[in-house]
Amino acid sequence: MKANSLMLRRSHGRAWRNLVCWLVLVGGPVWAKSDPAPHFSSVVPGLDYAHLRVTNRPWSVHIARLDRARPDFELVTTLGQGHIQGLSPLSEQAASVPANSSRAIAAVNGDFFLIQPGPYQGDPKGLQIINGELVSAPDQLSFWAECRQLHLEAVASRMALTWPDGAKTSFGLNETPRANSAVLFTPSFGGSTRATNFVELVLERLDDKPWLPLRANQTLRARVRSVTACGDTPLTPDIAVFTLGARLTNRLALVQPGAVLQLSTALSKDLTRASAAIDGGPMLVHLGREQHWPGEKAANGYLLPRHPRTAIGFNSRYFFMVEVDGRQKDLSMGMSFAELAAFMKRLGCTEAMNLDGGGSATFWLDGRIMNSPSDKHERPLANALVIVQSVRSRGAN
Questions:
Q1: CB 27 within 8 A of CB 334
Q2: Which residues, other chains included, contact 102 with Cβ-Cβ below 8 Å and sequence gap of 6+?
Q3: Cα end-to-end span (Å), the chain
């Protein structure tokens, strides 16, 4: 689990009952039967859009609904500026999808991320897979697509390096290194590791064995090209860099250039065939049921306030992207997690997950931003989730 992640704690039933009582006192049912239902219109065959306005809340909600039976669509993830180092707005990330084979149709902001300026700004909180490449390790709750199947489950990292004497060291991936941790950096991180004054092992491909781009649930063997105590090693397409915190350097005596090390990218779930993945949380709907959350969060106000929200969900027929504007009293106040869960269930989701919200909440459709971001402009983001359609299929439509 990443040290800079936003921790999502577990809950207790008593606090949930208190939360429900609070919602009843301040606003009645989470979702009333009298509230309007979304009216969808076709963007392209297979993808529909709705803008729902509920004036008495007030809410402004943007929804994309994808027919999962259509083979000409797929889900992809993107990175700001094309790598972990850096941020870019949703409109730029959607436009970055290669146009030679596919075209972006709809997109929403992605995972929580390290927003503070610094060498690791843009680091996603958890798992990300881009076109099958593992670029960020899981934190807690993950969504992924593989072979047209969709999954939403807790995923944990079991990644580890095996030293020549058989000892193992767990590591993170493309994230902030610390004195008591190890991190594997790949070219997807950016130009260099930015880990100044850390000991680093430069790793290269061993013969014709599997190597980069990194994939989930693989076992790799790599040769040590060099060892440096200066850190901030440049990242070229053919190498990975293993960065060691000061408290983990006791095994360096075993390693010289030419030594062979084993890397495992094992995860608690098999994501070998996942083409796209992104983290988020909390879970909103599971097995068709709205989820209940933790007492501590209810007590300290984490669950109760309304904020701008972004969520994804699906059932056997449709995949949904949802964005709720907020912090704008005349347009939309946003939703609490309980309200968002109720809304996703009302859409028909059997599984649904919250994504980053607040000023990050953004909804893009067919070339333009559709929502009203709470910052009054697009916030630069770490990553995004995009619905794309093959160019040939769109031309036929």
A1: no
A2: 74, 76, 388, 389, 390, 391
A3: 44
Rounded to an integer, the average pLDDT of 145-151 is 97
What tokens appear for 74 in the block? 């797929």
Return d(Cα 64, Cα 41) in angstroms, integer.
10
Angstrom distances, CA of residue 54 to CA of 172, 293, 294, 306, 349 = 43, 25, 28, 14, 20
Q: Which helix (H) or strand (E) holds 262?
A: strand 260-264
Average pLDDT over residues 193-215: 95
User: Amino acid identity of 295?
Assistant: G
In terms of Cα–Cα distance, which of 235, 200, 239 is closest to 222?
239
Half-sphere exposure of 85 (CA within 13 A, CB side): 14
CA separation for the pair 154, 238 (Å, rounded): 32
Structure tokens that stand for 52 in this block: 């729902």
Cβ atoms 397, 45 nearer than 8 A: yes
- Exposed/middle/buried for residue 19 (C-beta within 10 Å: 0-12, 13-18, 19+): buried
The CB-side HSE value for 192 (13 A sphere, CA atoms) comes to: 11
Please, are residues 185 and 174 in contact by the beta-carbon 8 Å criterion?
A: yes
Confidence class of residue 209 from pLDDT cuts 50, 70 and 90?
A: confident
